[in-house]
Structures are given as structure tokens and as C-alpha cells.
Amino acid sequence: MGRGGVPLVLHLGAVVAEPFECGGADVFVCENPAVVEEAAIALGPAAPALVCVEGQLSVAAVRLLGMLAAGGARLRYHGDFGAGGLTIANRVVGELGATPWRMATADYQVALAACRDRG
User: Nearest CA to 79 among 40, 107, 115, 106?
Assistant: First the structure.
């Protein structure tokens, strides 16, 4: 999300052309645009730095996250618990050095219970 809690779409050209850095701040990374939308509504300008990769990582996403990490940002990743989400998580954590965010066993159990309750 950009300043003021407004979601922004960054294409590769923008990522290459502009320096992006967050110093030693936490940068939250997710795969689902709905998470960004909810954060924008709920938190507005108070939202922390949040990057949505919108599924499998694009070249722009890898460049942006790599640039942020190289600048000292701490990447924290959350994604879906399905096979696709875990594949993305493995890449963001394994290749880009992110730490999991709300992806512990207890988080999975809460998500599973919510699915059962809706079911």
C-alpha cells in the first residue's frame, strides 16, 4: 500500500525506475488482494507497509521485495494454506528471506475451523 493507506499497483517499469526502501521496518507480504483491500478499509493511513504479490511472484514482485530486503526491511509473509499458497510461501521465505506471518499451526487450525463453520 502507498502512503495514506491507498493501494497502488506497481509494474516492473516503476520498480526498476524508483528506489523503494523501508529501512528496518516490517513489510508485510501477502498473496491475496482481498487482504490489501481489508487493510485499506480497516487501517487506512495507519496501515503498515503491505505488498500483495497477487498469486505467483512476478518479476516485479521479486525485484521489489529483494530491493526492500536489501535496504534492511524485514519481510513477513502470509498466504493461503492451500498448495498454491504454500508454494508461494516457500519461495518468499526461501528465496527472499521472509519470515512467516500468521502461518503457524494455530493459525491454520483457526482458518480450518472458520471453513467448517461456513460449510
Answer: 107
